Amino acid sequence: MANMPVQIDWSELYSDLMSDRETKRGIAAARLLERDIRLNGWLVGRVFADRPELAKRYGLGRRTLVEAVRLLEDRGIARMRRGPGGGLIVLEVCRSRSLKLLNEHFVAAGTTVAHIREARLVIRIIADYLRLHRRGPAALEVFNGYFTRGLATTRREDPLANIVAAGAIQDPAPPGDPIIDFLNDSLDRFSRLVALTDAPAASDEMNIRVPANRPKTSLASLVAKRIVEEIRNGDSHDLQRLGTEAEIGERMGVSRQVVRQAVRILESQGTVESRRGRTHGISVTDPESTVAAEAVVALLSSMRIDEANVRAACSAMGRLTRILVAAKAGPEHFKEYERLVDCGHTWGGINMFSQWVRLDWEIIDNPILRIFAQALTGCQVRLSNDVCAVPMEGMPGVQRGLADHIEAAKKGDLLLADRLHDELTMLVRAAFHPA
């Protein structure tokens, strides 16, 4: 057993990164279907599979399949068409809906002008990295050269601005890259919203352009919206009990089955939590970034962006995340990183990785960058093999590398911390293989 490799199940990792709550079967099935729609080329207007084939291929019971389809329909990813030649029809993902959801999350998360400024610097650096990445290794050396010069001129004071200055990076980034264009578009729209009002309401700023093939709103989606309205209009707080499925159904005049499907929609968004038992029922939870992040993942996936471009953007985002973490982390954060490294002998792969990434996002403390990092990581995970493994004999080297990286970050040596993590990344990539 000591030589068993660390297993990475990418579909499980995706769910773990999107939400730290229990993933119900319907939600997991919807995410699996969306992933395979992406891997199949996101063929808009085509039948992905009919109902019997979906049940057989994925081993889904009737209730789970109905819940999964409702979730896909609610998110505008696919719809079930009845009759001859029917089945699960792939839809064009609504760009303006994704932008609206981002705006709503940024408002709810208390996004500030300082957050916007920091996010713009990150986008400029990623845009320049992607531009030079397309030109080849020699051009990337130019990027690495000014990146390290920018880190060498500072310790913990505004490293992003120093990197931008060292590279004389353009502002704004030139259009043409689909990932950068979307990120810039989302920031531009939110910036206009912030400029228009002291207390922005994201839903008032944008009219959603709904694609012609978007299905009519289901009864479950309407009930989900009514539940959200109840939460917003009531005295909601953590774990506020909304009632059981039967109580909600009676209050709204719909069946328990419709309520159950509505609850799955809201659970997938991180709005409510359903627990079994006579005294439990449906409860309000802390708002999550899940719905906005998954909307961005779906949109970028539907755009069929080149896999190399996704991986390059995710790599650049990861590198900048580490720089921000090293600049912002306090002693208590470094202790938590050290604890994760010390527990390396018990690593199960997914749990340790997701804990580490979530700690990164907590330290960055920027709702915009968290969503961007969450979405780009989600896109990359979607493109990965079903299961990969890292041999356990390589883990001591990984632990030493992580410990050295943390020590450099604690000392405020951003340049050394960046170099050590880059070496560690190459070591881990060389060890990965399909399981």
From TrEMBL:
Gene3D superfamilies: Winged helix-like DNA-binding domain superfamily/Winged helix DNA-binding domain. SUPFAM superfamilies: Winged helix' DNA-binding domain. Keywords: DNA-binding, Transcription, Transcription regulation. The keyword Thylakoid does not apply. The keyword Mitochondrion does not apply. GO terms for molecular function: DNA binding; DNA-binding transcription factor activity. It holds the Pfam family GntR. Residues 23-93, 217-287 form the HTH gntR-type domain. This is HTH gntR-type domain-containing protein. It comes from Sphingobium baderi.
